Amino acid sequence: MNVPKNLKYTKSHEWVRIDGRIAVVGITDHAQDELTDVVYVEVPAVGAHVEAGKECAVVESVKAATDVYAPVSGDVATVNEELASAPELLNQDPYGKGWMFTITISDPGELNELLSPEDYAHHIGA
Amino acid sequence: MTGTELLKRTPLYAAHLEWGAKMVPFGGWEMPVQYSGILEEHAAVRERVGLFDISHMGEFLVAGPNAERALNDLFTNDVSGIAVGQAQYTLMCNDQGGIIDDLIVYRLEPSVYLLIVNAGNIEKDFVWMNTHATVSAVIENLSDRLAGLALQGPAASQFFDFSAALPHFHIQRQEVFGKECWAARTGYTGEDGFELFCEATDGPHLWRMLLGWGEQFGIKPCGLGARDTLRLEMCYPLHGNDITEETSPIEAGLTKFVAFDKKSFVGRDILVEQKERGVRRKLMAFKMTEKSPPPRPHYTIVADGRKVGEVTSGTQSPTLGTGIGMGYVEATEAKTGAAIEIEVRSRRFRAVIEKKPILKRGQ
């Protein structure tokens, strides 16, 4: 399973790329593989406040709906609007075109709580 | 995952792992939910051919001079109407007209019948039949001795020499890749196909040979995920979801499988009453008419701003690319073409009541 070295992770299988005060968020390769064919993605509203560890988006496969949790607190800056018409991007390119939303980080201290690639790989038994 | 150690495994368990299946619990069994992906497997069955493990299903043999009478008193349909080699869809109801199980009856010989029942209901059905049979008949549970494989899709007819001689909804004893089995032209997908029942030990051989021979047609091993989307497009009910002991054949739109001209069978009185007086709710099919999350069981069905029912099965139809489902709604609202809404996480999405099946042929 692909676990890129330049990202941070959560135990609930989100990935985070830190660009200054912005956190780009998606679900991991492991998560998309477990979920199987993604057919619907519900992203948060731009401007919505999200809390670290709280659900803020939903990914639906043919079989089930799964919550996505905010890795850090802050306001949603942008969302990937392409996912509305192409939810399969989460399966095809989870770390690239399948990104879900960005958060303007309100508490940089929370970044320390995220998992390193090594810890996440261990977490999923890879 | 907890409780995995209590799940039963089919004779094809090792083959599933070898083919890269994702295994899940289903009806007390550890079953493949998918191999390459539900959408791909679904497409293989609609366009070419797919192979399913159905060994979890239960098989009962009912035999003896009283077998026909025993089954006719237990089931809603009239088994005397089928000839040797023919199959019949039927229902087993309780005294309240609730559906204990839905099943296929195959008449193997004048007084020998093979029944295929749902995996999660095997023990319950066996006890019910033995305690409610009005006349004595031998009822043998073969479920642990047999493997079942379903070959489904338009290319299925090109697998066997006997295809042309085995009509739809019929069964024959046949040799398949050197193994004796019961070959039935039945299925749960809406496509042409076969269900093969063989000795458990012959299951892996048949699985391997069918997948090998099927390579030329682009065969895919298929899991329960595709089985569910395929059957739901055809509006075949799933026991435990769409039909239960709390719902009747009349409510479920299965009246044509109730032979009211039989003088007696379990549940007859109440079913006659329901047929004559009408029922308060009906199982209807629907299709989303706007982009929405896939409908799921227990979502609320709304009409004119008020709750009129609940979804029992729902999915994203791989063939139509839109949400579809079934659910019980108040009988007065269950009209083909009527606009309804499905409530998903407090938001309502537009849908329309469809005539069954949702997937019209030629689409």
Please provide a written account of the structure.
- The complex is a heterodimer of chains A (126) and B (363).
- Chain A contains three helices and nine strands; from the N terminus they run βββαβββββαβα.
- In chain A, strands 1-2-3-9-8-5 form a six-stranded antiparallel sheet.
- Chain A has helices at residues 29-35, 89-92, 117-123, and strands at 8-9, 14-19, 22-27, 38-42, 49-50, 55-61, 65-69, 74-79, 101-105.
- Chain A is globular, with a radius of gyration of 13 Å.
- Chain A has a single domain, classed as RNA polymerase II/Efflux pump adaptor protein, barrel-sandwich hybrid domain (OB fold (Dihydrolipoamide Acetyltransferase, E2P), Beta Barrel), CATH 2.40.50.100.
- Chain A is an alpha+beta fold.
- By secondary structure, chain B is of the alpha+beta class.
- Helices cover 18% and strands 34% of the residues of chain B.
- A six-stranded mixed sheet of chain B has the order 10-11-12-9-3-13.
- In chain B, strand 5 (87-93) and strand 6 (99-109) form a beta hairpin.
Keywords, separated by commas or semicolons:
heterodimer; A: 126 residues; alpha+beta; OB fold (Dihydrolipoamide Acetyltransferase, E2P); 6-stranded antiparallel beta sheet; 3-stranded antiparallel beta sheet; globular; B: 363 residues; Gyrase A, domain 2; Alpha-Beta Plaits; Elongation Factor Tu (Ef-tu), domain 3; 6-stranded mixed beta sheet; 6-stranded antiparallel beta barrel; 7 helices; 19 strands
How are the SSEs ordered, and which strands pair?
The complex is a heterodimer of chains A (126) and B (363).
Chain A: E1 8-9, E2 14-19, E3 22-27, H1 29-35, E4 38-42, E5 49-50, E6 55-61, E7 65-69, E8 74-79, H2 89-92, E9 101-105, H3 117-123
Antiparallel strand pairs in A: 1-2, 2-3, 3-9, 4-6, 5-8, 6-7, 8-9
Chain B: H1 13-18, E1 22-26, E2 29-34, H2 38-47, E3 50-53, E4 58-63, H3 67-74, E5 87-93, E6 99-109, E7 112-117, H4 122-132, E8 138-141, E9 146-152, E10 171-176, E11 179-184, E12 193-199, H5 203-213, E13 220-222, H6 224-233, H7 268-277, E14 281-288, E15 300-303, E16 306-317, E17 322-330, E18 339-344, E19 347-354
Parallel strand pairs in B: 3-13
Antiparallel strand pairs in B: 1-2, 3-9, 4-7, 4-8, 5-6, 6-7, 9-12, 10-11, 11-12, 14-17, 14-19, 15-16, 15-18, 16-17, 18-19
Helix pairs in contact in B: 2-6
